[in-house]
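Risk register update: the risk of archive-format incompatibility is retired. Evidence:
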Amino acid sequence: MKTSAGLIPYQIVNGRITVLIGHIGGPWMAKKDEGGWSIIKGEYTDEEPIAAAKREFKEETGFEAPDGRYLELGEVIQKNNKQVLAYAVEAALDTGKMYSNKVKIEWPPRSGNQREYPETDSYEYFDLPAAARKLIPEQAEFMERLAEKLGHKIQPGAGPEQNTLF
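Archived output:
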C-alpha cells in the first residue's frame, strides 16, 4: 500500500472554519469539481510523515509549510488503496501566488505523447461543508476530524452558523 502525508491549512473567519485544498491537475480532473479536489499531499517512504507533508506542501504550492501548532488528523484509506495521513495548521496564505510542480503524463493514454501538467492546478479556501463535497470522498473525513479538534459540533442539518459541519 502506498502512503501519503498532507497538510491542511485552515483559518477561522467570522467564526467559520475554512480550509485550503487544491484542484487535482492533469487531464482526468480538468472538468471535475466535486470529487476533483484534494488536500495538499504526496507519497513518502523513508521519512517521517510530518516531514513528508511539509516537503510536499512546498513542492505543490511554492510556499514553505506554515509555522504553527500542527493537529494530527489521523489517516484514511482511499479507493485506490492509498493510505493518507493528514495534519492541520492554522495559516492564512495567498492562493493567488501558489504554483505547483509539474508531472509528465502520457496523454492521450497509449499515444506515446508525453505532456507536462501541474500536479495541482488551483487552490482555494472553502468552508468545511463545501470542502467535504469537493474533496476526494474518503478525504472528507478529515473535515469532520478538524471540526472536532477545534471544538465545533458536527450534526446533520447545519444552518448557516458553523456550529455544525453538515
